[in-house]
Amino acid sequence: MHNSRISHARRFFLLLGAAFGLLVLTGCEEVKINDLTPSSLAENPSQIYTVSARISPKTSAVVPGSLVARLIIDGKNFEMQPSSLGQDIYEYDFPLPSGRSQIAYYFLVTYQVENNGVVASREAYTGVRTLGVVGRYVLSLEVNRAPVGAKVSILGRGFTPTDVVFLDDSPARTVFESPNSLGFFVPPVAPNKTYRVSLGGAAGSPVGTFRVDGGSVSVSPGSLTLRPRETRPLTFTIPNVAPVGGLLLDVTTDVPESVIMPEVIIPAGQTTVTINVQGGRPGSGSLFLKGYGEGEVTVPVTVK
Description:
The chain is mainly beta.
């Protein structure tokens, strides 16, 4: 008999524990917490960042008006307020301390439930989340297509004079305009294709996609014969006026010691530009302009 009483008592407590465990597990499903905060936010001058969550009762047993949402950061709790963005959304504006660019946080929700006239307190919480504040980011490309040589701006924040823009793996001539603006000249890549634009190459910061349009250019005269130190004009003409910022014609040569010439830029709103080419050491080769016509315009040059 004595063993039987112990067995019954043990069974009773096991059943009681199972029931309590079931109650706890049920309580975990009474409120759903959905973090609405992005993992990173752009730095702003106020240094105040909004953390928000959608907190939804999943059962009618939750007592209306009893729910209190708190944001836990650095061991301190901050009561969140209902947001004007929608029902069940709570938010808190957190002022980021100076010198920090990241915070770790979690949500703690307390509420009451009523079952058969009995009111009990409950709580629910999330795991730890991380929010990073980014001081360098890209907002947009000024345009999403242009011909080779066109100058294009990138708007954002945190740019530096050492930044280089790439179209796929091809570096572009990059101009630092301000911490909020970069300019680049579309490099002589194959036209009529779409390229990935990034800062710093394939492993850098993605900017977007960019379409390089085909174009044509005529060069007059079609060839040059010079004597050393002799100067001859060379005229470049495009069918449409150059865009804002001008059109850079990236002219190269295979005889740099024989050809002396300035940079070729057609001014904005113009269709032509004339530059002077001076003969250097005797030799023969060509001037090359990629990205136009059939992919490359060639001007033979002889210095003798």
